[in-house]
Amino acid sequence: MRKNVISRLLAIDKNHENSREVNSIYQLWTCNHKIPYIEKISTIGLLSMCFLIATDKMDFGQYASIILNYRLALIAMFAISYGVVHFGKPNDALILSSLLVLPLIGINLVYIYLLATPFGRHNPHLFWATIIIQWVSTYVIQSFWKEQVFQTSIVFVSILSAHYKLTLDKTNTVQLCIWILSCGFIAFIDRRAFTTNLLEKYRLLRALAPEAVARFVTVAASNNSIEEAFPPKNRYFACICADWRGFQELTMKHSPKVVSKALEYFHEAVFEELPRIVKDQAYFHEWTADQFFIIIYSASDDFDKVKDHTLEFIRFLATELPRKLEGFDKFAFKYDVGATVGVGLLGLQGPKMMKKTTCAASIAGEATRLETEAKEYRREIFEKTGKQSEFPYVFVDSELHQHALQLTHYSLKFDRTFAKTKDIVNKIVFRTHYEEIGGENDAKSSNVVLIKKAS
After folding, report:
1. Neighbours of 396 (CB within 10 A)
2. Cα–Cα distance, 219 to 383 (Å, whole number)
3. What is the rounded distance in angstroms from the CA atom of residue 292 to the CA atom of residue 243?
4. Where are the domains of the chain?
């Protein structure tokens, strides 16, 4: 129930399948932008109050001295708010929210109170100033839904209180109530567009850069470009390549609608698992029809972490994914996998203004060749037995295999073999095939590999 309310307040379509993703991105954005917004609002508030002091004599005549006291109080409030965030850099969410919204509520209350006084009741300058203050104060925090709703509610109640407890006349009360509610509704509509654009920006960026980089650039308060956030440099990373078997035949056998749905089902099952395994989101994935290519790296160049995540994802592809795909009964999913690790040039590269994550390294080509090796091995098994296994054949390089031997908690069995594919002929590689949970490798290998769950 609470999530549904939040979704509505964030202006997410009620049929939006990715509301959790939107909420996550939006919450990160608000956390990162509160301090810059407080600094900007406080600076504008200070300058505005100082400027208005000079014009009060013209607008309010003999009452200018009374207005001055309130101006000074507001200047002090904005100055304190600016000083706390600029010099103190608080991290507490409640403190930041208070510093963001309380000065704006304060200036609204001052103008509503002055409008209810005898000298302000029929002053058109003060009335229109109150109208402008309500609009501006709502506009500047409309991206922060909690603070904006809180401010609108307090201002609305204050207007009614000024009418019943003070001397705010009925006409002004009705006009101000309608206006502040209208401002709140407009903020709601604008926030709808804002959250939609935020999600679209994130989706566009993660098609070009790793998940962690796309998220950072989307929610960051700084103006760093995506190229600055993920520049090309030598990094240690893993390449995982997988491809369906007999995809062309399947496209001729099934309707375009079924093929399209199968591709969606397959890739979603794969990419839903990546964030669970690689919790720091240091990965990049792309696909072309039935093939996907995944890069896993470490922002801190932790080699063991990269291999842990890669082996855990291989375990998922080899054992769990085939069982997940059984839910799509219109299609026979058969795929094979190749995986390698090593150092290479990784980052945003390519034509100017069209850069995307690219790896320039021999391990990328080797991963695709190991996937081809797996495909050819599947063909050999089929020619010998006449059977097509539902589980993938997985080929990895020696570095992944050596690391796997050191791990615990989950076992897969690898068999040492010599590659036959072009460019890696006679290279020692390792093969696994998991027929059933807890079952034996089809090659009856003596090499027991224990693979732990990634932390």
Report:
1. 27
2. 53
3. 7
4. 2-206, 229-450
Residue holding tokens 């609002």? 41
Number of H helices, E strands in the chain: 15, 9
**Closest C-alpha to 337, from 359, 321, 354:** 321
> 261 exposed, middle or buried (CB, 10 Å; 0-12, 13-18, 19+)?
middle
Work out the number of other CB atoms within 10 angstroms of the CB of residue 184: 19
CA distance 147 to 65: 32
Could you tell me the pTM of the whole model? 0.76
**Does CATH number 3.30.70.1230 belong to domain 229-450?**
yes
Which residues are within 8 A (CB) of 281 and not within 5 positions of it... i.e. 6 or more apart?
A: 210, 211, 212, 215, 275
Per-residue confidence of the chain (455 residues) as pLDDT tens digits? 444 444 444 444 444 456 777 888 999 999 999 999 999 999 999 998 888 887 766 666 666 677 788 888 899 999 999 999 988 888 888 999 999 999 999 999 998 988 888 877 777 888 898 999 999 999 999 999 999 999 999 999 999 999 888 888 888 899 999 999 999 999 999 999 999 899 999 988 888 889 889 888 899 877 777 888 889 999 999 999 998 887 888 878 888 888 888 888 888 888 889 999 999 999 999 888 888 899 999 988 899 999 999 999 999 999 889 888 887 766 778 899 999 999 999 999 988 878 889 898 899 999 999 999 999 998 998 888 888 888 899 999 999 998 988 877 656 778 899 999 988 999 999 998 876 333 444 433 334 444 443 33
Q: Which parts of 245-315 are beta strand (E)?
A: 283-288, 291-297
Instruction: Give the chain's largest Cα–Cα span.
Output: 104
Q: Which of 372, 361, 368, 381 is nearest to 420 (CA)?
A: 372
Please provide the DSSP assignment of 295-355 as one string.
EEE-TT--HHHHHHHHHHHHHIIIIIHHHHGGG-TT----EEEEEEEEEEEEEEESSTT--
Q: How far apart are CA 241 and CA 287, in angstroms?
A: 10
Smallest Cα–Cα separation from 195: which of 24, 13, 11, 36?
11
Please name the amino acid found at residue 241.
C
Angstrom distance (rounded) from CA 148 to CA 183: 10
